[in-house]
Amino acid sequence: MDRLWTIMRKEFEHIRRDPRTMALIVVLPALLLVLLGYGISGESSDISLVVADLSRSSASRELIQRFTAGRDFRFSYEVQSEDELLRLMDQDHGKAGILIPADFGRKLSTGESTAIQLYVNGSADPTLVQTTELKLSAIAQMAAQEVLVERVTLGGMSGGLSLPFETYVRMLYNPESDSKRYMIPGLIPIILQVQALMLTALAIVKEREHGTMEQLIVTPIKSWELMGGKILPYLLVSLVNTLILLVMGDLMFGVDITGSFWELFGLSAVFIVGSLGMGVLISNISQSQMQALYLTVFVVIIPAIILSGLMFPRDNMPAFSYWFSELMPVTHYLEITRGIMLKGVNARSLWPSIWPLVVLSVGYFVASVLAFRKRI
Amino acid sequence: MSTTRLAVEVDKLSRRFGDFAAVQEVSFYIPEGEIFGLLGPNGAGKTTTIRMLCGLMKPSGGRATVLGMDVMRQAEGIKKRIGYMSQAFSLYDDLTVVGNLAFYAAVYSVPRRERQARLEELVQVTNLTGLEHRLVRHLSGAMRQRLALACALVHRPDMIFLDEPTAGVDPLARRAFWDLIYSMAGQGVSVLATTHYMDEAEYCNTVGMMYAGRMVAVASPAALRARLPGVLYQLDVRPIERAQEVLEGSPGVLDTSIHGALLHVVLAEAAVEGELQPRLEAAGLEVGRIESTEPSLEDVFISLVEDRERHPAASSILAPPVED
Fold first, then answer.
1. Helical H runs in A40-81?
2. What CA–CA distance (Å, rounded) separates B308 from B324?
């Protein structure tokens, strides 16, 4: 018993003598709960809706009103053509879309049959996709029935009992709602992120702990040479990983790359440089391997899984979690992998995700060089 | 003095870690091509001093130049022209002997076509022939030390800093190592080495003794010994602790200290020697032999430290560097 107590006291003493590690141990898990707890919301309200109202009639406006009146949909964009609507979906600005044809108002008033087109962005989380589809068609059906009821009350049964307009739902990108097609392009970024951090987070702090860093910083070596030398070999390793993951996605899960392979591969390289830079940055600011591991897991990996958009839509996140996720290269890379693999869109439409990825990757690499102190 | 160029010039160099003054106003200089030994127990401030000179740590006060360059402003320039062997063994133990050498040759930008010849030369000089392709983790302590020296010499530095180069190495290997350092100095390389083995200081042109962050004496080993006041005798007497109590403070005895099985006694003059045996026997002690001996640097060090502790305010009698 006495020995058990002695060992316990010694362990507590270690923790107490190392206040920085203690702070990480105590503060990080709590911080993570705040960050993630508010960040995750399974609710699918405020689904962004892109509207192409070509009819511009009172009937079409009334119909749109039915979609946006509740909390289910949020009127996000108004466009003038189906092309524009599809482009916004490509860029992931809308999770749902509605197209009302130009003759909608006229045909409805003359009792001719007409139709509206509904779109569901299939590149989102499968549950959200399903909910979106259900809500879209339910609201459209209800609207059509109400028009019918109105008509019957006013003019009797003369017009027949067929619905005044048809609704067609078109599932974009992932027509079979295959969850693999959605998950694989999301998992690849997370796996590469974990890999990159594991390769580099200990790189500098390990040499400091072993004493080899002291021998190295007394040489004329420059910070950028040292950081570059630590990062580039792992860039090569990670690119091989990327290839293997893409090939496996295709062969084992049937998830092929709809868009350009080379665009995807080039942007993967940018992402990997940023992730490796992040790892080296963590290694530079950590005083021990333990601190480096803590920062890696709690500040990068867990948020990457929860906040990047892999599992939960980012639209509903509170500002704090949202901006935190904007600072993670993986968030933007994930948009890119889904865009290229699932939707087959080109780099031009992905620009809103590409430039933050480039800025962040360069930023983390430069920060890793600047954070390195050629002193003991 | 004005004709000799200085490899190192240190003026009131200090370093604080919070409240703790690790190095306090240390001053000394090293003429080019000389071996300077920084001597003192662990915690005396030797490593901190050496780290400041190599540009690994910023001084909190004072100034220092190495090879004419300022340690505060020209640290990167200094790094190109010095070699450094740190206290903790710090080579890559998952690389081979030549693997480590080739790595440092490249880091120090040794021209590619000279590298092979330089590596072979170093392997030979440091007596690592036959071990070129052995992993460092399979080398003995003495071999690692020689390899670390070879790595520090790979770019033909004008000056080398060795922090406890022989710690944990057997006496024979220590001697071989110092012979190597001696031959380096013979080729014009200036050397600053720290050690806590007093006998190693005998290899140095000049010795700086550090204690509790301060330089307590700087002089050649011979000059340091000559400055010890009085004459030194060693006594074989039992029990030794009791003998020290009897003699400490008795007339004509300046100082006593225990060195292994022998008691060292510093007498004001040789005439007092005859009184030692009667005094000890009167106290009921068994006296073996009493003989005169050359003071070792350890005796000098102990005397300096005791002196300092008796008069903490006064600066040491031996503090000013000797001009010789």
1. 58-69
2. 25
Tell me the CA distances in angstroms from A138 to A37, A151, A168, A177, one per residue in order. Answer: 31, 20, 12, 19
Chain B interface residues (partner A, CB cutoff 8 A): 51, 54-58, 75-76, 79-80, 82, 84, 86, 88-92, 104, 107-109, 151
Would you say how long chain B is, in residues?
324
Give pLDDT tens digits for B270-287. 888 888 888 888 888 888
* Cβ contact A345:A259 at 8 Å: yes
- Predicted TM-score (pTM) of this structure: 0.75
C-alpha to C-alpha distance for B186 and B178, rounded to whole angstroms: 12
Domain ranges in chain A are: 47-172, 178-371
Q: Does domain A47-172 have CATH number 3.40.1710.10?
A: yes
* CB-nearest partner of B56 from A212, A220, A375: A375
Question: A376 and B56: CB-CB below 8 Å?
Answer: yes
Q: What is the pLDDT of residues A73-93, one digit of tens each?
A: 888 888 998 889 888 888 888
- B48 exposure class (CB count in 10 Å sphere: 0-12, 13-18, 19+): buried
Question: How many domains does the structure of chain B reveal?
Answer: 2
User: CATH number of the domain that B280 lies in?
Assistant: 3.30.70.100
State the pLDDT at residue A38: 67
